[in-house]
Each structure stands twice: as structure tokens, then as C-alpha cells.
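Input set for joint prediction.
Command: fold jointly, output C-alpha cells.
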Amino acid sequence: MTDGKIKNRIRRLRFDNDEMTQEELANRAGCTRQTIIALEQGKYVPSIELAFRIAKAFGVTLEEVFQYEETT
Amino acid sequence: MAPLQKRAWYGLAIGVVFTIALIVVFIAKGGISTFNEDQGFRIIIDVLWIGVLLTAFISTGLTLRKPGQVDERDRLIVGRAQVIQLWAVILALVAWMIALTESYWDEGQIPVIFPYLILISTLIVSTLAQSLGILIGYWRGVSR
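C-alpha cells >
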């Protein structure tokens, strides 16, 4: 079994969406700003439900926000 | 700072301050002998620790129930903190058991004050461990 890491493009997508604030994204996705900060820093991997809500907040697909990278 | 993190700092501060206050009041009022003889003193100590612990537990409950205050990550951190809390309580009880067994084995019984002290110390350990567990969770991050 290989290990993997889930990366995200939340910070990039926020700036691409008229520099959406972390607070605004948190409100849209239904989480706290601290969770958005942790996600951007790669310190937290969201549940599949929150991942979908974040993707929906940006109006993109899940894969456009989160990527799975296998490490050997 | 997350609301739950703020609450954990309060819990830690309340726990530490109360533990110190309890020890100071206990020693200043004459310790175990006064506690055994003076019912008024026992009631003062009872009111003190029950009041503080209720405040800590109610404030946690209110923080967790407020909509928008906590999310899945906060709940994950609380869940991990509860494991730390459980181990801390078990360790505290084991420490009490070993200490009392070794100290009072020959007498075959323990003074009546000890069940009281065991309860107070366990509840304090529980509150402190929960707060510390939450703060460690925010500091180190949490993963599934």
C-alpha cells in the first residue's frame, strides 16, 4: 500500500475569485475561518462533505480544488 | 483564535487557578484536621469546586452547541482531547490506588477524606486534560 498526500488549491482559487476572504469562504462552505487557514497550510484534510462544499463555494469540481498525490 | 480554543484556554486557566486556590485555602484553614472537624469548611470547599467545575462544563457545552462556532475540525479535536482526558483520569486513579494501597495496607481502611479528594482531583485532572488536549490539537493540527 502506498502513502499519499491530499493537496489543495484553495488559496489560489480564493485569489482567482475576486480575492475572496477566508471568512467569506468559511461562511459559504459552512466551516470556521480557522479551518480554512489549516486547509491552506496543509495541516488539515477535510471530510468529503466539506470538500464538496468548498468546491461548490468556488463553483468548480472537487478535483479542481483537491488533488491526491502518491508518495513512495 | 477559534472559539473552542479560546474556551480551552479559559478551562486551563480556571483549572490551574482553582487548583492553586483550593490548595491554599485547604492549607490556610488548617488542612485535613479542620476538614474532618468543621462541616462549614467542608461546605465552603464543596461550593468552590462544584461551582468552578459546573462553570467549566457548561461553558464547554454552550460553545459546542452554538451554531457556527464549531465545525468538523473542532469536533475532531474535541474527540482526540477526550482520549487524552480518559487516559489522564485513568492514570490519576491508578496513582491514587497505588498510593493509598501502599500507605494504608496494614490498617485495612482509608480515612474518609480520601474518596472526597479522589473525586475532586479526578475532576480537576479531567478538566485540565481536556483543555490541554484541545490546545495540543490546535497547535499540532489534526488528521483523520
